[in-house]
Fold this sequence. Notes:
Elements: E1 5-12, H1 18-28, E2 35-40, H2 47-53, E3 65-68, H3 77-89, E4 97-101, H4 108-114, H5 118-121, E5 124-134, H6 135-139, H7 147-156, H8 165-175, E6 179-183, H9 190-201, E7 209-212, H10 220-223, H11 240-244, E8 255-262, H12 268-282, E9 284-291, E10 298-305, E11 308-316, E12 325-332, H13 337-344
Parallel strand pairs: 1-4, 1-5, 2-3, 2-4, 5-6, 6-7
Antiparallel strand pairs: 8-12, 9-10, 9-12, 10-11
The chain binds guanosine-5'-triphosphate (GTP).
Amino acid sequence: MTAKIPTTVITGFLGAGKTTLVRHMLAHAPKGKRIALIINEFGDLGVDKDILAGCGDETCREEDMVELSNGCICCTVADEFIPTMQALLARDEKFDHIVIETSGLALPQPLIRAFNWPEIKAQVTIDGVVTVADAAALAEGRFASDEAAVDAQRRQDEMLDHETPLGELFEDQLSAADMIIINKTDLVDPAMLEKVEQNIRAELRPGVGIVRAANGHVDIAALLGMGMSSEDDIANRPSHHELEHGGETHEHDDFDSFSLTLDAIKGKDDLLATIEDTIKAHDVLRLKGFAAIPGAAARLAIQAVGPRVTAYFDRPWKPGEAKVTSLVVIGESPLDRDAIVESLRRSEPVPA
Ligand SMILES: Nc1nc2c(ncn2[C@@H]2O[C@H](COP(=O)(O)OP(=O)(O)OP(=O)(O)O)[C@@H](O)[C@H]2O)c(=O)[nH]1
């Protein structure tokens, strides 16, 4: 019997640093190792794949990257994930490792369970589930906006769904993990980091390792090659959602996303300030995309996680490529799409 292909599942909330970690992993994986990458994103712009495809690492060529963008991977297991795996496994060239980056809103449990489907169980196994946690978001208390109220409710009835959607999802992602990476340590002071780590530790199964990192810089040897066969241990990785809904299909009604395109903008500083104002005014959780800055030969990659907006020129515009500004916006439902679009359109030039 040939050895099963190890697969690393990378999960973690919106903007925690999953793509940054994958980028680091591809750049530092042993040369000659062939890695297939399955990228699942919430929102239809394909920003993560575009960022990863641009890094030009030999370990993962563009044709080895598959994007699953029809919703979160946990809801599209049968229709998308299994066929994608089967197609990867049917290729003539064999992969040494598979890496799956889930969307920030995905529950890992249905994906882990899918590795027990006979269609793929004979050929692949989960090497480890890695959950990336955003130290800055946790320090700012972004997962439990009103902790006092949540605790009061919890005291009244232990069985009900009392967590905020964000907190619950995060706990599901922690409970699924074989390893936690506490990322963005550069944004948090040591005392707060200690507190964040203690809070995370309280949610973990015994033996789950915690690694601290900035920009996903972790030892790749520790990340790839954990040998956990996590799919065999799914019973020990409970999910709030599955417990409460008897395993029924998980919907993402709690969250909403849309994308928009601006034909022209006034300028870089104005755009970034407008994005920052919009995020604060409308509680946007995540915004990302690319912008066409007047006079710039390169496109501007924009990343906003909560109130923090960053931007960098990631590559020159390609000949014939439409120079437009495209953004994806993600937040808790209901998002006031019209008001958000109107707010972002303030960065367009005023017609003469
Ligand atoms: N300061 C700081 N920024 C980071 C760190 N890791 C990632 N970022 C930034 O955080 C933003 C989001 O990072 P991503 O890697 O795209 O996060 P993600 O989890 O893949 O995001 P989604 O796929 O949208 O859920 C980007 O602007 C990154 O550059 C870190 O350790 N420190």
